[in-house]
Amino acid sequence: MMTRPLLTLSGINKSFGPIDVLHDINLEVYPGEVLCLLGDNGAGKSTLIRLLSGVHKPTSGTITLADKPAAFASPRDASNAGIATVHQFGGTFPLMSIGRSFFVGEEPKKGWGPFKTFDRKTANDIAVKAVRDLGITRITDGDRLVGGLSGGERQALAIARAVHFGASVLILDEPTAALGVKEAAHVLRIVLQARQKGIAVIFITHNVVHALTVGDHFAVLIKGAKAADFRKGEKTREEVTDLMAGGEQMAELEAEIKSYMSSHPV
User: Fold this and answer.
1) Each residue of 89-117: pLDDT tens digit?
2) Cα–Cα distance between 52 and 261 in angstroms, integer?
3) Domain containing residue 204: CATH number
4) Is the pTM above the cut of 0.70?
């Protein structure tokens, strides 16, 4: 792992009119590591994803990518800079074939000049190989519709596409949220494969078990602010769960419940 961060967020704030959503977020993401961004619903995870993927611009603060200031005017800008975002359901197109979905916007062509057409065979061969390289051996036909794939296979297809097109930062938004145990385990293995390729992975989740399985570095968001930042092994599963629940707020609630129960015996 490199000693210098690939992606740095410094003093990031985001407001929508009078509503403050993110408050002074500072994060560093290194190549070949998995940063798990944890938080309950409403913690600000989705807004942070949109800033990194070029959907929104920060109200203040700076984003640095490979030691250079980064300002994304659109998702295309972020993608061109090497930041790939895979959303919960893979961001794929159910009515497209695997090959077309893999190369959408970047289609390989055959022919000459104005007579160029989509090279279906090349697209299918590359897409199937890329997905099979990630361990999804059930996919053998690039003409198969994406809509016929399972949730885990869609995630694998989207991650394989990001790796193929040279993503240096891979943002995964709740990739295991809608999956069964076996499919979730396979997606977690794919995350580790991406890490082994030297990709910086930002894994957004509210599942503590999945985070602790693959994470190297952890940040917890509560109400738009970073409540904790720690490395693997520094906190137990229970401590992480308490942090996500609000930590001190949870302790205060438990104290109130105990006090009430002691004064109102059954």
Assistant:
1) 666 788 899 999 999 888 999 988 888 89
2) 47
3) 3.40.50.300
4) yes
